[in-house]
Specification:
Layout (H helix, E strand, L loop, with lengths): L6 E5 L10 H16 L3 E5 L17 H5 L4 E3 L6 E7 L2 E8 L22 E7 L1 E3 L15 E3 L9 E5 L5 E5 L2 E5 L16 E8 L2 E8 L5 E9 L8 H11 L2 E14 L1 H7 L1 H7 L4 E13 L3 E2 L8 H14 L6 H19 L2
Parallel strand pairs: 1-2, 2-3, 5-6, 6-9, 7-8, 9-11, 14-15, 15-16
Antiparallel strand pairs: 4-5, 10-11, 12-13, 16-17
Helix pairs in contact: 3-4, 6-7
Length: 349
């Protein structure tokens, strides 16, 4: 390591589910302990994958790190928690609020008092920044725990964000806003995302950052043509399965495009859900695209998943916004229309 950090921030989604495996817990604990042994202060908040969606839980999987005394965990979703430490003679006030799953469309900064008590003030939030030309590579994330730049408390030096899987950095009235994104590609929507983490240095009124890019798991597309006249000795499902097995790699994200004309009987034998289950351990993520596949007598009958009204509205507004330059006054109007429109649509669901 070229430089030793003073503070290590994890802004949510430490695990991918609320009850991670014991192996995952042990692995994370061992890595956090290494940071703690090196006298690096670790701060963690819970993301939407860490917090139970329904009911309440007395503790989260990440709370074990706080109980062990190797990290500070702000696991509360209802309030801002804080801790002030000394770094090179300066007081650093770090505060945070975990993801609010019970009311996902609520603003995590609304009616909340953010502590501004240190020489440097840092806030950790797992939510969705609206405006400032920010968009999520996964559109449905955009409406979850939404807030706007105007909601940021004056006096904050650094806002550490989680939730969006794509990296972005913005500045608003003296506050550096950084969303490092995920460190791995988790879905096909993230194919073009750069993955990594952010090294930030706070020095007086100046904040400098550097995005450190990491290698990620491979992503691949493949084509497989099918035909109603094809002689599939072991059946059409096993034919596709054999093709996929040859491409197998547990770290790979694969999209296979099926095309051609098959009979109704062949389609009944294909059993896509059984194929996906059979490939569960062959790939990190597998998507079978059937939009180019025709069924005799019916034609092309497969479509992408239809957006719900909120997603469709959000996508349309994001397209309109992206076509305007940042200094265009119409852009701000459209961003406000997107924010208010989503709130209205959510209230009528």
């Amino acid at each position: 390591m070229k430089n030793k950090p003073d503070i290590f921030l994890i802004a949510g989604d430490v695990f991918d589910k609320i009850l991670p495996t014991n192996a995952s817990r042990v692995f994370l604990t061992s890595k956090i302990k290494l940071l703690n042994d090196a006298n690096i202060e670790v701060f963690i908040i819970g993301g939407n994958h860490d917090i139970p969606r329904f009911g309440s839980s007395p503790s989260l999987a990440i709370d074990v790190l706080g109980s062990a005394g190797i990290a500070t965990v702000f696991s509360r979703s209802d309030i801002i928690q804080k801790k002030t430490i000394k770094v090179h003679g300066k007081s650093v006030c770090v505060s945070g609020r975990s993801y609010y799953t019970k009311f996902e469309r609520s603003n995590p900064l609304e009616d909340i008092s953010v502590p501004i008590e240190g020489d440097y003030n840092i806030l950790m939030i797992h939510g969705s920044l609206q405006g400032l030309n920010v968009a999520s590579s996964v559109p449905e994330f955009s409406c979850q725990n939404p807030f706007r730049a105007e909601d940021i408390t004056k006096g904050l030096n650094y806002l550490a964000l989680g939730h969006f899987h794509n990296y972005f950095e913005r500045e608003y009235k003296g506050c550096t806003i950084v969303n490092p994104g995920s460190i791995e590609k988790l879905s096909w929507a993230e194919m073009n995302d750069d993955k990594g983490f952010v090294w930030a240095e706070l020095n007086g009124q100046e904040t400098t950052t550097e995005f450190i890019e990491l290698e990620t798991r491979p992503m691949e597309t493949s084509q497989l043509g099918l035909s109603k006249t094809g002689h599939y000795i072991k059946g059409i499902k096993n034919y596709v399965l054999d093709f996929l097995t040859k491409l197998s790699n547990p770290e790979k994200i694969l999209k296979i495009n099926l095309n051609g004309l098959i009979s109704q009987d062949q389609y009944n034998q294909l059993k896509i859900n059984e194929l996906l289950r059979a490939c569960n351990d062959l790939f990190f993520n597998l998507r079978i695209d059937r939009r180019e596949l025709e069924i005799e007598g019916y034609g092309r009958v497969f479509m992408e998943r239809l957006d719900n009204p909120v997603e469709a509205y959000s996508k349309r507004l994001e397209i309109l916004i992206s076509n305007l330059k940042p200094d265009n006054p119409e852009r701000q109007l459209l961003e406000k229309a997107k924010y208010l429109g989503i709130k209205y649509l959510e209230s009528t669901r």
